[in-house]
């Protein structure tokens, strides 16, 4: 799933300045599952903004709403009437949803209230780990189902580097804590699969043109297009 | 052996090819446009090492680039081993830079992945990591031997390169470390320098694995050593430098002497003992002395280790 | 209603331990003299709500500023409920759940504790003193502690002064919050939660 984190409150609040009506729009799909931008969180943010605005003596009307999915036109129709009432919208959807809103309701001001951060999985309740970089050319068939592109800090095709210790990556930050070394995991699982010879293969440079390095990507399924 | 048989014909390549015990040093370029730093370091090391590594934004901290500093070292009579990390350049830049370095007379190149940006002074930088160190070795080998760019296009004049790599015998998984060196040999590395060795028994064990798959015959292995200036340095290496394995005995030994000149003397003595022990290990072709910001210690250590004069090669 | 007549009740001599801590701290804070905070208490009916009853039966004094909303468990309390209470004008809000390890639903009180902690963080972000919300734990047998908590928290809020977004003098948030809670709030057993009625 796509995960996102709410932006710092001050940054969001600054975006509301100069507006007398602001709608906080949640999205009840990915960002709701990661507890960041669903209807519940939209209501919390709206309440916070209202209290802060009142404290500051600002006369501003702040309400909330939520779409089932902000990234699909049909679901945006369902909230269109409400959105139209507000000159500024703070979207709590992922980057896709925010842009869908901005496009659907253009030229209305649609502002991001969250930072979309990864394609992650909930490792445990309320903990998400990055699992996919959408690089456009999946290699995990040869790496024991573990992605070296995003799970190795240096995206090595031939890891691990010399910074792998006791199964941990050399990169440690206060926010992230210890990171598992992806190539140590790959080595262990390939051995368990009896396929460790795959570690001995010199993998060629990755074709990054399939990733965002190749420019914005587009996918078309002609056979599935409406007749 | 005639010069034409060499891959690059560098001093380092000749010494290693002739089976002589090589000594390399290391110089970190300055963190400013100060043109005197490399000159000064080159003066200290000239005649005491066969070539000197010029680091490439080491520990992800911005410094004068390794190409300019490498050229400066060579202009001061000291052969350069230009380091190149995959962190800061994509394949276009890495090929362009090696062609440029080659034109400027730089022949030794050390291919590295590079310390992560998070260690350095620009942690917000975008890491490039287009290629990894193994891809880089192969790309340079193909440029040199096949006269081909990474994309497959041909070039007229190939760069003459002596290609090096690094490996950390103390990294994990230990059982894979020698195999990873094999991958680098297969990719085309001619010589290799290890991470700083403090744990000699573990290094010996790694060399056993290297010899078991015959790698010592396919690549010139230089053992990395860092002379310790005092107990503080030992503790720092032990506790804060990633990939470092410093046994407690070494910390204790450095702690047993007074700070200042006695500790420095002990550090040099320890380095000499380690060089002598390491030189006896089958498959070790030389030492790489990384006297970080303590270049002045190198001449004395090399002399005490009985490695002078450095061989002159035609 | 629990929040009305209690102020008139005087502490019997045998509750000296708690009575000794009265008079309320308000007297020490002349700056906010005359300010009568409105405090919403989200009380679990298994413990704190029953403790309030007991306090009443014991004729213990606690301030009439406390206005209760009864929940089947503090685990039902969500972040937005606390924010709504403050937005509605309550000067302080606290959750009173069972002692840790004694929740009837195992961990409801622990969830409430985390949510109160999160709301404190949100309040810091918006420049509201995080001390306006709190989590307390007590058992149904802890009548004196209920009264003491009510006094302490009221004194704290008195010290903090009025909620910066309090709508107007004379306005009470309790009714608004109660309505917002809908079915989550349990009906008041007014017969038992007034000390005079027991």
Can you walk me through this structure?
Chain A has 227 residues and is an alpha/beta fold. Chain A contains seven helices and seven strands. Chain A has two domains: 2-117, 3-Layer(aba) Sandwich (Rossmann fold); 133-214, no CATH class. Chain A has helices spanning 9-16, 30-33, 39-55, 73-84, 95-104, 148-151, 182-193; strands spanning 2-6, 21-27, 61-67, 88-91, 109-112, 114-124, 127-132. The two termini of chain A are 31 Å apart. Chain B has one domain (3-304): TIM Barrel (Alpha-Beta Barrel). Chain B has eleven helices and eight strands. Chain B has an eight-stranded parallel beta barrel, surrounded by six helices. In chain B, helix 2 (37-45) crosses helix 3 (66-75) and helix 6 (174-187) crosses helix 7 (200-212). The N and C termini of chain B lie close together (10 Å). Chain C has 198 residues and is an alpha/beta fold. Chains in contact: A-B, A-C.
Strand order of the largest sheet of chain C: 2-1-3-4
The major β-sheet of chain A equals: 4 strands, parallel
CATH topology of the largest domain in chain A: Rossmann fold
Count of separate structural domains of chain C: 1
Query: Class by helix and strand content of chain C?
Result: alpha/beta
Largest sheet composition of chain C: 4 strands, parallel
* CATH class term of the largest domain in chain A: Alpha Beta
Number of beta-strand segments of chain C: 4
What are the SSEs and their pairings?
The complex is a heterotrimer of chains A (227), B (314) and C (198).
Chain A: E1 2-6, H1 9-16, E2 21-27, H2 30-33, H3 39-55, E3 61-67, H4 73-84, E4 88-91, H5 95-104, E5 109-112, E6 114-124, E7 127-132, H6 148-151, H7 182-193
Parallel strand pairs in A: 2-3, 2-4, 4-5
Antiparallel strand pairs in A: 1-6, 6-7
Chain B: H1 11-17, E1 22-27, H2 37-45, E2 51-54, H3 66-75, E3 80-85, H4 91-103, E4 108-112, H5 133-146, E5 162-167, H6 174-187, E6 191-196, H7 200-212, E7 220-225, H8 231-240, H9 248-255, H10 261-279, E8 284-289, H11 297-304
Parallel strand pairs in B: 1-2, 1-8, 2-3, 3-4, 4-5, 5-6, 6-7, 7-8
Chain C: H1 16-19, E1 39-44, H2 48-57, E2 66-71, H3 79-87, E3 92-97, H4 108-125, E4 133-137, H5 143-160, H6 174-181, H7 190-193
Helix pairs in contact in C: 2-5
């Amino acid at each position: 799933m796509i995960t996102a984190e709410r932006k710092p409150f001050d940054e969001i609040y600054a975006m509301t300045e100069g507006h007398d009506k602001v709608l906080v729009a949640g999205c009840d799909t990915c960002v709701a599952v990661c507890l960041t931008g669903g209807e519940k969180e939209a209501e919390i943010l709206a309440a916070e903004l209202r209290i802060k605005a009142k404290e500051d003596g600002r006369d501003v009307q702040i309400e909330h709403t939520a779409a089932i999915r902000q990234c699909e036109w049909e679901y945006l129709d369902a909230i269109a009437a409400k959105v139209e009432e507000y000159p500024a919208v703070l979207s709590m959807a992922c980057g896709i949803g925010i842009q869908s809103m901005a496009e659907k309701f253009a030229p209305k001001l649609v502002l991001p209230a969250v930072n979309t951060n990864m394609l992650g999985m909930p490792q445990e309740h309320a903990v998400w780990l990055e699992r996919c970089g959408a690089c456009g050319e999946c290699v995990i068939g040869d790496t024991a189902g573990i992605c070296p592109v995003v799970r190795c800090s240096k995206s090595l095709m031939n890891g691990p580097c010399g910074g792998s210790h006791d199964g941990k990556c050399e990169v440690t930050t206060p926010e992230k804590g210890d990171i598992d070394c992806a190539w140590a995991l790959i080595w262990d699982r390939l051995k368990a699969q009896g396929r460790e010879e795959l570690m001995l293969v010199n993998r060629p440079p990755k074709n990054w043109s399939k990733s965002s390095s190749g420019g914005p990507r587009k996918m078309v399924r002609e056979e599935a297009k409406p007749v | 052996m005639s010069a034409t048989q060499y891959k690059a014909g560098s001093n380092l390549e000749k010494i290693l090819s002739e089976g002589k015990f090589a000594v390399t040093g290391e110089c970190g370029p300055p963190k400013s446009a100060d043109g005197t730093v490399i000159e000064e370091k080159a003066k200290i090391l000239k005649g005491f090492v066969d070539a000197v590594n010029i680091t490439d934004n080491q520990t992800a901290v911005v410094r004068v680039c390794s190409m300019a500093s490498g050229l400066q070292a060579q202009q001061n009579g000291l052969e350069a081993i230009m380091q190149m990390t995959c962190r800061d350049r994509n394949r276009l830049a890495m090929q362009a830079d090696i062609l440029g370095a080659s034109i400027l007379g730089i022949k030794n190149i050390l291919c590295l992945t590079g310390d992560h940006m998070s260690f350095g002074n620009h942690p917000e930088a975008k890491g490039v990591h287009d290629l990894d160190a193994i891809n880089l070795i192969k790309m340079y080998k193909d440029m040199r031997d096949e006269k081909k760019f990474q994309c497959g296009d041909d070039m007229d004049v190939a760069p003459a390169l002596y290609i090096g790599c690094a490996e950390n015998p103390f990294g994990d998984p230990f059982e894979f470390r020698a195999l990873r060196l094999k991958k680098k040999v297969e990719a085309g590395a001619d010589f290799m320098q290890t991470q700083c060795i403090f744990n000699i028994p573990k290094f010996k064990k790694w060399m056993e694995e290297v010899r078991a798959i015959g790698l010592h015959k396919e690549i010139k292995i230089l053992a990395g050593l860092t002379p310790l200036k005092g107990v503080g340095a030992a503790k720092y290496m032990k506790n804060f430098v990633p990939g470092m394995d410093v046994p407690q005995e070494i910390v204790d030994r450095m702690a047993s002497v007074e700070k200042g000149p006695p500790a420095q003397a002990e550090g040099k003595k320890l380095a000499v003992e380690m060089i002598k022990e390491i030189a006896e290990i089958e498959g070790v072709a030389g030492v790489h002395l990384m006297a970080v910001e303590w270049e002045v210690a190198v001449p004395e250590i090399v002399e005490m280790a009985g490695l002078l004069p450095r061989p002159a090669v035609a | 209603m629990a929040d009305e007549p209690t102020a008139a009740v005087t502490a019997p001599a045998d509750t000296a331990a708690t009575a000794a801590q009265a008079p309320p701290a308000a007297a020490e804070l002349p700056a906010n003299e005359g300010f009568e905070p409105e405090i919403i208490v989200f009380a679990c009916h298994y413990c704190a709500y029953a403790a309030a009853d007991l306090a009443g039966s014991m004729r213990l004094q606690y301030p009439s500023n406390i206005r209760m909303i009864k929940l089947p468990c503090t685990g039902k309390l969500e972040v937005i409920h606390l924010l709504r209470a403050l937005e509605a004008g309550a000067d302080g809000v606290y959750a009173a759940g069972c002692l840790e390890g004694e929740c009837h639903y195992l961990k409801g009180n622990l969830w409430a504790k985390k949510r109160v902690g999160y709301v404190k963080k949100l309040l810091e972000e918006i420049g509201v003193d995080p001390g306006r919300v709190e989590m307390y734990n007590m058992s149904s047998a802890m009548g004196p502690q209920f009264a003491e908590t009510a006094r302490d928290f009221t004194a704290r809020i008195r010290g903090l002064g009025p909620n910066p977004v309090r709508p107007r003098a004379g306005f009470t948030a309790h009714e608004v919050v109660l309505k917002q809670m809908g079915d989550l709030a349990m009906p008041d057993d007014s017969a038992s939660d007034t000390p005079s009625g027991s």
